[in-house]
Amino acid sequence: SRIWAALEEAGVVGRKDVVRVENGRLLSKEESLLVHDEEHWDRLMDSQELDTEERDILAETFNSIYLNSSSIKCGMLAAGGVLSCVDLVMSGTSRAGLAVVRPPGHHAEPETPHGFCLFNNVGIAAQYAVTQLGLERVLILDWDVHHGNGIQHMFYNDNRVLYMSMHRYDYASFFPQSEDANYDMVGEGAGRGFNVNIPWNGRKMGDSEYLLAFQNIVIPIAYEFQPQLVLVSAGFDAAVGDPLGGYRVTPAMYGYMTHQLSALAEGRVVVALEGGYNLSSISDCATQCARALLGDPLPALLVDQDRVIRDSALQTVRDVIREQRQFWQCLAGQDKVLPLEVDGGEVGDGVELAGLEDQLDQLSLGTSRSVVRSQLVKQLEATGQAKKDSEATVNIAPAATERDHQEHASEDSQETTIAGLTEVPSEDTNSTVDNAIATTPELVILEPRQT
Q1: Residues 6+ apart with CB under 8 A from 263
Q2: How many of the other CB atoms lie within 10 Å of CB of 244?
Q3: pLDDT of residue 343
Q4: Which of 350, 238, 258 is nearest to 301 (CA)?
Q5: Which residue, 12, 176, 315, 401, has most beta carbons within 10 Å?
Q6: Cβ 106 vs Cβ 144: under 8 Å
Q7: Phi, psi dihedrals of residue 342, rounded to the nearest 5°
């Protein structure tokens, strides 16, 4: 695929701290039934016996579904591949995961395929993490330009899975064209407050609007929730150049968001592909997400000082905060009325971004893991004998970020997983600390498989 080729060209694939995992795991019926009805499973399985004409007739009964002779198997491989990444991350084999899978999944409903999605890949993975792996708090961030209606409906009454979605809404006129995607849909029963929709109204939203929502809603709520696993429904159809989304989020912004999420859940983040219809854009965006998961330096997040954040975006952020602040203490003081004048000067209708670049400059994107590793190794070498004599604990350099502190706690047991061919790290107990760190994968990447 183009994404896989871009990862190879960027030097992500083939690194010592990256594990390729070949996608050969098929979703089982039991795993599908974690979120889907049995009728849904039976209908898709039976469709494999149909001829072309019969299959086309069946597809017409669904909303935006197209089927060929390999569709169902591809869907089972995609969902199974995301589960493989979750297993590798939660077992400690890898620190984080990137699932390069197709078809996407977040539109698939419990009872029916929907919107190019056959099985709800991330929804299944979240329920699997809760019921099979025993997690109590799973965060799903969906940044696909379309609302993930299927995921929302699967966890609308559940406080163990927090679903947050940033999507184009256009007052319910943008696909999937449902008022369920609005900001006032906050969950029901035990799930009240655990469904957070950030619905954009209008075209050409970009880094400025996404940064506004991400910093003021997504990150504060995520930290208060304290997830044990972060799943990203990573559609890149809001990216610059996508012909369907009409937005202009840059690859740098996707990398930035991924980096910030990696400070949660001790770095246990699995990014799973969803939509995206510009091969060049989705390849660049996926590459920046992979680099962020690896702790690599990221491109600068540039903000146009002359651009004004759209009024509709400001209103969306205000609406979400007002609706959600009853559930999240971190939002309690964020909805304040701003004065029309400051020091005698009138404030315009929009909010200018003149000071936003200065704020971004102050945001630390963290020390790269390679630098942190070298610091740790030097400390271990310098204090190795003292540690043997006194069993003293090695301190991490003060310059390390909070995320780096979390990483060191499990540095010698975790790696990053990329789905492809798995390379087993060295189990030689006589290997040096340097070798142990170097052979511990940071990322597991699920490699796409031809059927």
Answers
A1: 366, 401, 402, 403, 406
A2: 15
A3: 57
A4: 258
A5: 12
A6: yes
A7: -130, 120
What is the model's pTM?
0.79
**pLDDT tens digits for range 384-393:** 444 444 333 2
Q: Alpha carbon of 176 to those of 83, 106, 319, 377: distances in Å? A: 26, 11, 21, 51
Would you say 99 and 419 are in contact if contact means Cβ atoms under 8 Å apart? yes
Reply yes or no: is the peptide bond before residue 398 cis, omega within 30 of 0: no
Q: Active-site residue among 36, 106, 107, 114?
A: 107
Distance CA 167, CA 184 (A): 14
Give the Cα separation of 304 and 114 in Å (integer): 37
**pLDDT for residue 449:** 61
In 3-state terms, what secondary structure has residue 206? strand
Other Cβ atoms less than 10 A from the Cβ of 203: the count is 14
Catalytic, 107? Answer: yes
3-class secondary structure, 349: coil
pLDDT (0 to 100) of residue 349: 45
The stretches of 149-236 forming alpha helices (DSSP H) are 149-154, 207-213, 219-225
> Cis omega before residue 103 (within 30°)?
yes
Q: Which H or E element spans position 323?
A: helix 311-324
First to last CA, the chain: 13
Using 70 as the pLDDT threshold, list the residues of the chain that sit under it.
304-306, 335-441, 447-451
Encode pLDDT of 128-169 as tens digits. 999 999 999 999 999 999 999 999 999 999 999 999 999 999
Q: Find the radius of gyration of the CA atoms of the chain.
A: 22
d(CA 274, CA 103): 7
> How much is the pLDDT for 121?
98
